[in-house]
Amino acid sequence: MAKVRKAVIPAAGLGTRFLPATKSVPKEMLPIVDKPIILYIVEEAVRAGVEEIIIVAGRNKHGIEDFFDVSYELQDKLEKDGKTDLLEIILRIQSLATVLSIRQKQALGLGHAVLCAKPLVGNEPFAVLLGDEIMIADANAKTVTQQLAESYENTGKSTVAIMKVPNAEVVKYGIVDVKPINETTFAVQSVVEKPKVEDAPSQWALPGRYVFDAAIFDLLKNTRPGKNGEIQLTDAMTGLAQTKGLLASTFTSRRYDAGDKLGFLQANIELGLQHPEIGDGLRRYLLEYAQRL
Ligand code: UTP
Question: Is 80 exceeded by the pLDDT of residue 250?
């Protein structure tokens, strides 16, 4: 089966949950400790064997493109100042993968954003990683994208990540109707975008990691605007489930919804605690602060 070599990162949303910070700064560039959100996402894709990253960008998103580009002046200065450790960090980012970007001229929905990437993806399987969801795998564990890519490569079927959410939270996610195959793998029957609690077919939610066959593009092209007038990826996924088939897989990584204020702060605290430079100091501070609460 074809290898998953390309990944699409939709990053053209308006980020309204994070206003006013996201008025001129893309939310994908907000930092978790010392790295922008998008770098964690690109690193996850690269660990899964992805060689080409396609960023679907909107207006005000130049910062993302610049971040992966060469910065001669900065590099020159770091080199002259002998700051080789920082220079290495900067050079590593540029060499992680080939990073391309394409515009979504209007935020017409996640499905539309994925369709915008078609000219750069072509006719091959590809991963989709949402630009505001961070998934951290243990050092020796597989990343979510790696799990999904392996499922595609072994079965030839598009595979998406799912996680169980409390009943009250189904309204925030795409929810899948599934039939179990084994403990971790399910066959998707259909997908409903942000259902009411009483209409949800299950508590299995889509946290924003997918590997798709290129057939999804034709389905997206024929998808009419759905919930909130947006072209919904979930509607095309139902089409895929009912034609070529769609698998869903649980995953082991820790997940943070970094596009949400609370999720963003949780990611900063947990990843800050693991950071070699500030971890100990942050732990001492949190323990001391907790006494005062
Ligand atoms: P979200 O709905 O979480 O992002 O979309 P948003 O619209 O930017 O954020 P809020 O809800 O207003 O705060 C999930 C992902 O899909 C992208 C977003 O950038 C985000 O990474 N997206 C969404 C697009 O690229 N284009 C769209 O038209 C919609």
Answer: yes
Considering the chain, what percentage of its residues have pLDDT values greater than 70?
Answer: 100
12 in a structural domain:
yes
Is residue 78 assigned to a domain? yes
The burial of 41, by beta-carbon neighbours within 10 Å (0-12 exposed, 13-18 middle, 19 or more buried), is given as buried
1 belongs to a structural domain: no
Are 250 and 285 contained in the same domain?
Answer: no
CA atoms within 13 A on the CB side of 225: 6
Residues 291 and 238 in one domain: no
- Is residue 15's pLDDT more than 90? no
Ligand 1 center to 29 CA (angstroms): 14
Rounded to the nearest 5 percent, the helix, strand and coil shares of the chain are: 45, 25, 35
Give the closest residue (by CA) to ligand 1 atom 4. Answer: 13
Q: Is the peptide bond before 20 cis (omega within 30 degrees of 0)?
A: yes
Do 32 and 169 sit in the same domain of this protein? Answer: yes
Range of the domain at 56: 6-135+145-259
Q: What is the per-residue pLDDT across 122-172, written as a single tens digit (0 to 9) for each?
A: 999 999 999 999 999 988 899 999 999 999 999 999 999 999 999 999 999
The values of phi and psi at residue 158, to 5°, are -55, 140
Domain count, the chain: 2
Residue 255, pLDDT above cutoff 90: yes
Residues with a CB atom less than 6 Å from ligand 1 = 10-18, 56, 104, 107-110, 112-113, 130-132, 259
Q: Which of 14, 116, 220 to mutate to test the pocket of ligand 1 (most atoms within 8 A of CB)?
A: 14
Q: What is the pTM of this model?
A: 0.94
87 pLDDT above the threshold of 90? yes
- For residue 140, being part of any structural domain is answered with no
Same domain, 234 and 102: yes
